[in-house]
Design a protein that fits this description.
By secondary structure, this protein is an alpha+beta fold. The chain has one domain. Helices cover 29% and strands 23% of the residues. The strands form 2 sheets. Strands 3-4-6-7 form a 4-stranded mixed sheet, with helices on one face. It has a 3-stranded antiparallel sheet with strand order 2-1-5. Strand 6 and strand 7 form a beta hairpin. It is globular. It starts with a helix and ends in a 29-residue tail after the last strand. This is SseB family protein.
């Protein structure tokens, strides 16, 4: 089962959050790059790195952002584990990963919570993991 399938299971309240985090860690996701920097956005005090399960999901995001259908986007293929364990700890301030955000029914946020990112950069005070479906996608 792939990452997109695990996300669907979580969104249908049938999945296991730990299995989802594990699948994300084992998956090479596509991260858009602008001026040699991984593309991200800030929302509610958290930097969200954009990541996509495949080129079609990235293309839908590009269209939502106003790109022409044939306009190329640069991206890096990055292991989920590398994003969580190396990239996020190297950033200033709290950061998480937003997966497939242009697809309201298939998106997922991996926040800077214990069990997702290293404890040293987690901002939650509770225990366990907390993935969050994105309600309306990116507009």
């Amino acid at each position: 089962m792939g990452l997109a399938d695990e996300i669907k299971r979580i969104r249908a309240a049938e999945g296991d959050p730990l299995a989802l985090v594990g699948e994300f860690r084992r998956t090479a996701v596509l991260v858009p790059v602008v001026d040699d920097v991984l593309m991200s956005a800030h929302y509610q005090g958290i930097r969200w790195i954009y990541a996509f399960t495949d080129e079609a999901a990235l293309a839908r995001f590009a269209l939502v952002r106003g790109s022409a259908p044939d306009e190329p986007w640069d991206y890096e293929r990055v292991w989920g584990a590398r994003l969580l364990d190396a990239v996020i700890p190297a950033l200033d301030g709290p950061a998480g990963v937003a997966v497939d955000v242009a697809d309201a029914a298939a998106s997922m946020l991996f926040p800077p919570a214990r069990g997702i990112v290293p404890d040293a950069v987690a901002v939650d005070v509770g225990h366990g993991t907390a993935m969050t479906p994105v309600g309306e996608g990116v507009r």
